[in-house]
Amino acid sequence: MNKINTISFIGAGNVAWHLAKELKKNNFIIETIFSRTIISAKLLANEVDAEATTNIQNIHPSDLTIISIPDDAIIEIAKTIKLKQGIAVHTSGTQEMDSLKSVSDEFGVFYPLQTFSKNRNVEFDNLPICIEGNNSAVTEALEYVAGRITKNLHRVNSEKRMVLHVAAVFACNFTNFMYSVSSDILKKEQLDFEILKPLIAETAQKVMKLNPTEAQTGPALRNDIKTIVKHREYLSNFPEFEKIYNFVTEKIQSKKHPKT
Amino acid sequence: MNKINTISFIGAGNVAWHLAKELKKNNFIIETIFSRTIISAKLLANEVDAEATTNIQNIHPSDLTIISIPDDAIIEIAKTIKLKQGIAVHTSGTQEMDSLKSVSDEFGVFYPLQTFSKNRNVEFDNLPICIEGNNSAVTEALEYVAGRITKNLHRVNSEKRMVLHVAAVFACNFTNFMYSVSSDILKKEQLDFEILKPLIAETAQKVMKLNPTEAQTGPALRNDIKTIVKHREYLSNFPEFEKIYNFVTEKIQSKKHPKT
Known about the structure:
2 copies of one chain form a homodimer.
Chain A: E1 6-10, H1 14-25, E2 29-34, H2 38-47, E3 51-53, E4 64-67, H3 71-80, E5 87-90, E6 106-112, E7 129-133, H4 136-149, E8 153-155, H5 158-188, H6 197-209, H7 212-215, H8 225-235, H9 239-256
Parallel strand pairs in A: 1-2, 1-4, 2-3, 4-5, 5-6, 7-8
Antiparallel strand pairs in A: 6-7
C-alpha cells in the first residue's frame, strides 16, 4: 500500500478549506495550496502551514494531490498537469474518476458528502467520504487517509457517486433554498427567523428515525384547501414565492395521489 | 385571570395527540376527547385518562376546550357548538381567531409551531407556541397554560400567525418533501438513505448559526453548468424529479441573479 504522509491541494474553496484543515489536524503534512488568486491560496496555506502558489509548476510532488475545484475547472486542469509522482484525486460528486486519467498513473476520487461554508465548522467524525481508486492500491491508500478523519467511509463508483450527489442536491441545496424563502418571507414582515428554528431542527431530526414519506405533514398532504387558498392569497403579494408554493404543493399532492 | 385546570379536546389528530399528552404530563386534567371516530377518540383518551366521545354534546364543560382539527372542520364545528363555560381555542396556523366568536364568549388561539407525527415524540421545552386571546384575561390564561409546557411563547395576532404558518410550510413541509425525493432517488438505485443523514443534519444545524442565504451551496448557486447538465441527463429517467430539479435550480439561480 502506498503510505500517504504529504498532501497538496489544487483549489482553496469551501471543500479544500475544511479538508486541508482536518487532514492537518490529523497529522498529515500539507505541502502546497494552489489557487488562481494568491490571496485565497495564502489564506488557507497559513491555516495549515503550507506554501501558497498561483503557479501550477510550483506544486510539491506530494504523496496525494487533492484537486478541489469546480467540475469545469477539473477538465481544464487535467489537460495542463502531469504529476511526477503520487496519487491525484478530485472531490467532485459528479465528475467521473477517469477525468484524471492523464494527470497521474494513480488517480481516484475523494468525495466528502457534506455542505461546507468557510465560516462554519464541520464535524468530520461521522462525515461520509466516498472513495474510488483506479486500482486497489490506490483505493486502499485513499481509505487510509479517509479513515484517519472519519469512521463513515464508502467505496462508491463514479455512477453511484453521481446519484448520491443528485440526491444530496435535493436533501441539502434545495432544502436550504426552502429555508431561505421562509426567512425572506419573515424578513418582509419583520418577523424573527429564530421562531422557525425548533421546527427546522425537528424536521431534520424526524427523518433520522422516520422515512421522509412517513414524516410528511402540512396542508398540501392533508389536502387542506381552505388553508392553501389563504396562503396563496397572501403570497400573491410575492409572485416568486407564490410560484414556488404552488409548484411544490402540487408535487406533494400528486405524490400522494399519483395520476394513473 | 381565569385559572385553567381542566381541558377537553375536539379532535384527536397529530397536534391533539401530542398536546393532550404534554398537558397531562404537566398536571392538567384532560376531561374529554371528542373525535368523529370512536377508535381515534379512545386511543388518545386512554393515553390521558380522559373520556372518549363521538357526541359533541358529551364534551365536558372544561376550563379550556382545544379544537384541533383541519381548518375546514373548524368552521363547521363552530356553527354547531356553543360552550356554556370556559375558553375555546383552535390550534390552526392560518384560521382567524374570530372564527370561534360564536363558540364561546372567551376564545382564542393556541398554535404550536412544530411538525407532529403520532409515532414521533417531540420536545416541548423550547417549542414555540403562539397565543392570541379575544381579551387580555383570555390571553393571560392561555399564556399560563402555554408557559407550563414551553418557555418559548409568543403573543401573535391572526395576520402574523398566518405569515408564520406560510413560512413554516416552506421550512418544514417543503423541506421534508425534498428529503423524500432524495430518498426516492436512492431507493430506485438501491442506495441507503442513511448516507445522507449527516448532510441533512448539518444543513439544518447550519441555519441555526448562519442565515440561509449565506448557508446556500451547490451547483445551482455556483452556476456549475457541467454538473447541472449531468444531473439533468441522469434525472431524465425520472421526469417528475427532473421537473423539480429544473424548477428549484432555476429559482436558486434567479435568486442569486435577479432579473431587473
